Amino acid sequence: MAKFRAKARAIELLGKGQIADLPTAISELWKNGYDAYAENLECKLFLDTYKDNSKPVFLLSDDGFGMSEDDILNKWFVLGTDSKARGGKINPQFDLNRRIPMGEKGIGRLSVSYLGSQMLMISKQKGEKANAFLIDWRVLDNYDFFLEDLNIPLFSFDSVDLFKEYIESAKTEFQSNLDEKKWGEQSQLRNAIHNDLASLKIPNFIKEEVIEKYCEEDSHGTSFIIFTPHDQLLELSDKDRIALKKDDSLTYLRTSLSGLHNDLKTTRKDFETRFFIYDASGKYNLIDDFFTQDEMRNADHWLKGEFDENGFFSGEIKVFDKREKYTFKPNRPPGKTGYGPFVIEWGAFEGEQKSSTLNKEEYNNINSKLESFGGLYIYRDDFRVLPYGRTEYDFLEFEKRRSLSAGQYFFSHRRFIGYIDLSRERNTSLIDKAGREGFIQNKAFREFKDDLVEFFVDIAKRYMRYSKDEGKYDTFRGTQLKEIQAKYDRQLTAAKRKNSKTKRLF
């Protein structure tokens, strides 16, 4: 009888090989923490100037349920665990609302290998001992290894002294994976793993700030400590990058990890996300300063409503100071959609202050946020779906249409902030790709995209259209725009006169 067997490389292919980038890997692990009812999802990058640190160390942690030894062996190390098995029931010690499990395929946890090769995982349930294991993910690159050949040292501890003792034993035990006979032509890789393992030293601040916490009886949660962080993390070690928020790689990280919870829909949430960089001078949070609900709703233009199961939209639109009910019906055969009902809400901003109802201070503040966070976000059960919302991911092709005629199509992907509110229960046919980079291009998604494109084109033509060259002010926006720009010109003229008078008096 024939049986399937899996090479160790399968874990690499299912984990790191399926993850597009660093923010996606972090998001996947935070989803696991969310499923474990964590209230704090955090990343910490400790630079080599921090306390007794000698090289950058990365920590990703949550304060969720945590895992027992049995959970680690029979759930964490078992690929393809279904969401019901991983979700479990809410621990009575956690006074939180029921959460819809974010994990689907049982492989998201393997994205931890993307963060860096040499890793220590620690997990603890309240009132129990902490459990830990040590691994260097590069052993999976040995193409001769089968999964059953790997030896991953797992140990429990309830004091710092026990941890110190067991971590040294774990290093020795892991060396069994590095027998020279098992590596053949890959001796260079084997030597690199061996040397990094031999030089591994746990900094005192890790013992004091992380290990000691897990020795407390009431503590709970899971931490991944990466001693050889990914290059994308090491780039953040450059202090100039931290100071300059417009740095491309830093902006990409910030825009991908900000707005993870749908704060635009509701300000009430039962978890927080943070990404701190620590050095000798203190700490810096990379993912603060996202849009607020009020900023979206006080935009120059605003809309909120719902698409029903047939793709018919009903809601309210505000263009400057005028409001009215708005309905939309897609131009296609009637019948239920493949994508299901959903709510959409957004706020759009004018491209020049003289055309905006916002004052100078408000407009400048919004502009700085639009540079980093402007876009249309998609949330499922209030948790962000990547890559939607990234400034460069214009999946509805706003900029393509705008390049044809800005006066006719109006909307710019970078000039508005909004969300689409999906749920696992109502929108079952919108399915994540294996790499968690958007939805599969199936019939439901194509209908979803086509209807939204037609929806925004209809709004632009009915409410926003304005031809400056022809002087046409025949829409909601056009009739008000003339008055707003005239008011701005009067204020500007008055300000210039006041400044001129002040100079003469001086």
Extract low-pLDDT stretches: none
Structural class: alpha+beta
CATH class of the largest domain: Alpha Beta
Number of helical segments with 4 or more residues:
16
- Kindly report the average pLDDT value: 86
Helix content: 25-40%
Sheet-strand content, in percent, reads 15-25%
What's the gyration radius in Å? 27 Å
User: Terminal Cα separation, in Å?
Assistant: 99 Å
Please give the largest β-sheet. 8 strands, mixed
For the secondary structure, the number of strands is 15
The domain tally reads 2
Placed side by side, the strands forming the largest sheet appear as 5-4-3-6-2-1-7-8
What gross morphology would you assign? globular
Say what the CATH topology of the largest domain is: Heat Shock Protein 90
Identify the CATH architecture of the largest domain. 2-Layer Sandwich
Regarding quaternary structure, how should these chains be classified? single chain
Explain the layout of strands and helices:
Layout: H1 9-14, H2 22-35, E1 40-46, E2 57-62, H3 69-76, H4 83-87, E3 118-124, E4 130-136, E5 154-157, H5 160-174, H6 187-198, H7 204-214, E6 221-226, H8 231-234, H9 239-243, H10 248-257, E7 272-279, E8 282-285, H11 293-297, E9 301-307, E10 313-319, E11 322-328, E12 342-348, H12 360-373, E13 375-380, E14 383-384, H13 398-404, H14 406-409, E15 416-422, H15 443-464, H16 476-505
Parallel strand pairs: 1-7, 13-15
Antiparallel strand pairs: 1-2, 2-6, 3-4, 3-6, 4-5, 7-8, 9-10, 9-12, 10-11, 12-15, 13-14
Short recap of the structure:
The protein is an alpha+beta fold. It contains 16 helices and 15 strands. Strands 5-4-3-6-2-1-7-8 form an eight-stranded mixed beta sheet. Strands 11-10-9-12-15-13-14 form a seven-stranded mixed beta sheet.
